Amino acid sequence: MSQQDQIEYQPDTLAIRTGHTRSFEGEHAEPIFLTSSFVYANAAEAAAKFSGQEAGNIYARFTNPTVTMFEKRLAAMEGAERAVATSSGMAAIMAVVMSFLKTGDHVICSRAVFGSTVALFEKYVAKFGVAVDFVDLTDLNAWKNAVRPETKLLFVESPSNPQAEIADIRALADIAHAGGALLAIDNSFCTPVLQKPLQFGADLVVYSATKYLDGQGRALGGAVVGNHQLLEDVFVYVRTSGPTMSPFNAWVFLKGLETLSLRMKAHSENAQKLAEYLSRHARVEKVYYAGLPEHVGHELAVSQQRGFGGIVSFEVKGGREAAWTVIDQTQFISITGNLGDVKSTITHPATTTHGKLSPEAKQAVGISEGLIRVSVGLEDIDDIIRDLSRGLDLI
Ligand SMILES: *Cc1c(COP(=O)(O)O)cnc(C)c1O
Q1: Best mutation site among 187, 206, 210 for ligand 1 pocket (most ligand atoms within 8 Å of CB)
Q2: Where are the alpha helices (DSSP H) in 62-107?
Q3: N or C: which end of the chain has fewer CB within 10 A?
Q4: What is the best residue among 97, 189, 208 to mutate for testing ligand 1's pocket, by most ligand atoms within 8 Å of CB?
């Protein structure tokens, strides 16, 4: 479909049809171009392509047709001008850092972001003289007060993991823009199906495609999405330094995008039912899911999202021992740190994904010993509930 045609199509059509470039063989499914470089008819064509006078592929660190298809499709689903694919979600975040920050700059980051994101800012970005402050996601005054003349980037994840706190994206965009900074949102949990942060004023959206965009736990990848001007900087960084998405993985994600809308609806439905079940269970202290009306972020989530997603966290009475009992009594739910899969997964954040945090840092982001995180998959919800109740009824 050409750019102009796309304006008339609904998101579900864009997710299946955008960006498909057929080769001369006329294949129906998207082709995988497993090639590192591209050839030219003659020296003049090579010269024109290398100089940029003529558009076209040169080398797969720069562009590859299968990766380009994925980028076009994701950008269309996001309602964005452009996307750049990366080798992983962390590579996408690093691409934002390297494209827009330099020594002397300052970043404000939500305290409740993915563990490796905290480590990336604290251990590596800081090493190059970029100062980082971590603040509470929902405390808008803390964000305002943290802004300095050197602030260039606000970095946010919403809903947060594992407490499902909701960021007021429009308010954060206003704070960023008033200070001349960019707002980047890690939208891996919602995907463009449930939330389009650019519509609320965010400048950049980053993805771990490894999660829901794939949806079946097969491949590692990431992406940065935004306008042409910003994304050109990201593109030049990625083509220069090399955290490029592999064409094979791009093909897996292309197929993932085709079913994303159906999957996100089904994940949200199952998660809602599980959250309601857990909130009635006597051995459950607290449930973190924005789909529950009593959740502090519920109203804000309703105003920003088209569903509440598939991640449910809850605290059991009895601390680590009780939490481990619930985990160990499951029969089919996978005990793993990964999420966003059609297979349900279960994690004890305090000793796995957030195990390296100090006790104070754990407390600040609400990681207690009794906390369990479930990525609710697409198995039958009655089976999922039964698998979890086995341990819950023992503690
Ligand atoms: C997994 C994840 C990442 C990192 O992505 P990788 O593909 O593992 O590099 C970043 N942000 C969030 C929210 C994630 O869940």
Answers
A1: 210
A2: 65-78, 89-100
A3: N
A4: 208
Residue intervals of the chain classified under CATH 3.40.640.10 are 3-258
Yes or no: say if 291 and 298 are a contact pair by the CB < 8 Å rule: yes
Backbone angles phi, psi at 25, to 5 degrees: -75, -15
Domain spanning 261-392: which CATH class is it, in words?
alpha beta
If you measure from the C-alpha of residue 21 to the centroid of ligand 1, how many angstroms do you get, rounded to a whole number?
29
Instruction: Check if the beta carbon of residue 238 is closer than 8 Å to that of residue 96.
Output: no
Instruction: Summarize the confidence of residues 92-103 as an average pLDDT.
Output: 98
Write out pLDDT tens, residues 336-356.
989 999 999 999 999 998 888
Q: pLDDT tens digits, residue range 183-210?
A: 999 999 999 999 999 999 999 999 999 9
The backbone region for 289, taken as left when phi is positive above 0, alpha when psi lies in -120 to 50, beta otherwise, is beta
Fill in the amino acid letter for 219: A
Q: Which protein residues are within 6 Å of ligand 1, measured from CB?
A: 88-90, 114, 116, 157, 186, 188, 208, 210-211, 220, 222
List CB contacts of 353: < 8 A, sequence separation 6 or more: 115, 337, 347, 373
**pLDDT at residue 283 in the model:** 97
pLDDT at 1: 52
Q: Which fold has domain 3-258?
A: Aspartate Aminotransferase; domain 2 (3.40.640)
pLDDT of 5 > 60? The answer is no
Q: Which two tokens stand for residue 316?
A: 């059991």
- How far does the centroid of ligand 1 lie from the alpha carbon of residue 91, in Å? 9
Question: Which residues in the chain are classed under CATH 3.90.1150.10?
Answer: 261-392
Tokens of 282: 């006597």
